[in-house]
Write a structure and sequence with these properties.
alpha+beta, 15% strand, 172 residues, 35% helix, 5 strands, 3-stranded antiparallel beta sheet
Length: 172
Amino acid sequence: MKTDQVLFNAIVPAAFGALGIRTLEGRVRELVYLPPSFEEKAADNEVAAQAAEQVASYLADPDFHFDLPLFEAGTDFQRRVWSEISSIPRGSVKTYGQLAKTIGSAPRAVGQACGANWFPLIIPCHRVTASSGLGGFSNQDDENGFHLSVKRWLLRHEGATASPWQQQSIWD
C-alpha cells in the first residue's frame, strides 16, 4: 500500500489536486491540500466518509456549509483568528491587517494563525490576503507554486474577483 494511502483516512480528488482527510476519535483531525500525484482513497471510517462527502459537496457548490465534528486544535489566539476568518462571506476577502485590527493583534500573528489552520475549507483561510495582493497560503514556502494555485482556485471557485482595498485583480 502506498504511503499516502496510509497517512489519510480518505483522499478526495479536486481540480487543483486532492484533499487528504485525517480523523481521530470520531472527529476530523485535519484536512490537507495535496498535489495531483495523490490518488483518491475511499473513506475508512464513518467520520472520514462524512468529511469526504462534504468536501465533495463544497467543491461542487461553493455555498455548501460544512457540519463536521472537529478535533479541538489551536491556541486560544488561533481559535479567535479562525472564528473571525469563518465570518468572512463566500466571495469576499479580508486582509491580514483588517483581521488583526478586528481582534487587536498584528498582521503577522494573524498570518501565522492562518498558516496553522488544521481545517482549511471549513475555516476558509484562503479568504485572507495581503494588503498588496494574494499573500501566502497554508504556511508553505511554495517554491513550486502549488499552494498559491490552490488559493487562487478556491477564490475563483467562490467568486472572489477583486481585493477590497484597491479593486484590482487578486490573481496577479
